[in-house]
Amino acid sequence: MNLLRGRFYRITRDLHLYLGLFSSPFVLVFSVTVFFIVHAWLPKSAADAPKTRVVTGFILPENIETLSGRPLVDALRIALANANVPGEVGFVQHNATERTFVIPVTVPGRETVATVKVATSEATIVTREPGLAAAMLTLHKSPGQHGSNIRMNWFYMRAWRWLADATVYLILFISVSGIYLWYILRAERRVGIWLLVAGGVTFFGMVYALAH
Amino acid sequence: MPSLTETNPTTLKVLERWNRKLHFYSGLFLLFFMWLFAFSGLLLNHPDWKFTEFWTNRREKTDERPITIPGPEFQGDLAQARALMAQLKIDGEIMWTTTRADTNIFEFQVRRPGHFFFLKADFARKIMTVRYAQVNQWGILKALHVFTGAAMDDPRNNRRDWSLTTLWAYSMDAVALGLIFMVFSSIYMWWELPQKRVPGAVALLLGCIICGLFCFGLRWIY
Hints:
The structure holds two protein chains of two kinds.
Chain A: H1 2-38, E1 51-56, H2 69-82, E2 88-89, E3 93-95, E4 100-107, E5 110-117, E6 122-128, H3 132-141, H4 155-184, H5 189-211
Chain B: H1 4-29, H2 31-45, E1 59-66, H3 76-88, E2 93-97, E3 105-112, E4 115-122, E5 127-134, H4 137-146, H5 163-191, H6 197-221
Antiparallel strand pairs in B: 1-5, 2-3, 3-4, 4-5
Helix pairs in contact in B: 1-5, 2-4
């Protein structure tokens, strides 16, 4: 029995260590960007000046102006790929009167806006590279709670969603295994329980005050 | 007086012991906060999970309440909104005020986790129409994750109208700081275990490569 318990302890300790090390860069991305979000502030990148280019022959499918939602995004993605604009397509604005589409496209750390005139098949493509902090912020907020019908239209952002989910599951595992590893240390139990209770009271007290 | 070489091993031992202690002390204190942000992050990642729907399941009521028109000392929409909220004893964050076509009508929204107030003041009639919506626990969970009271794209540069929002925002900072400390303290503890260095380095490197691909790599490749 003791042998089994010892083995379980060692396996849990090793998994806690290795999974914690694997997930640590992801945890850092989510943690550091909290400061940007909470204080609505983002470090500026030196190379943030927008670059503009005009693409002629930006061919769109004939029925493009009748599409909306995911079919519209999928149709635009093909044309964007031909114009060398890769990335996740965001909320597309269609001005039916002027026959234009404004298409935001994001690669973490790069923001592109393509303004397409359907009549002339001409696209003005403006690209900004706001840098690492902006890339991390994009990743923190992706995929986000809005526009689930169009989101995750780029393979890498779909992959990021799996990784963000995996980070959550790893944090849950690491915290539960951490509780087990702490509880084994008899000398630390009393202080640990006090801290757990203090954290719980702080947390539930704040949530109650905010949400009652 | 002991020399530096004599004190170093003791100092290192103390550092190691306290690093380890603080690692799980901070983990235990922040446990519920971490679970909240991790779990609510998962919910926000999956808006298609129907069981977490909150807006369609809301409870709503509307009533009219008398108001006093805010005096000239309340300059601007935000100041007027705060004055009206004080009259009606409504607490929360002012989300936005709409552009006024009619100067007698003033509309704005106030939110706090689980509670939505859609307010429409009619200065001519001295009446405030209060539409109030209350959402379920899933709505509260999601709101707590994003309830910072500050937005990057807010042209009014409004910063937190409610003291509890400020407290919550600073606790988000504290949780983030605690997590950053736990990451670095774990790296230190791992490095102190020579027999675990190679497998640990493989795990850390793998995490860094995958995460680095998204933070730096994608904009180089594409």
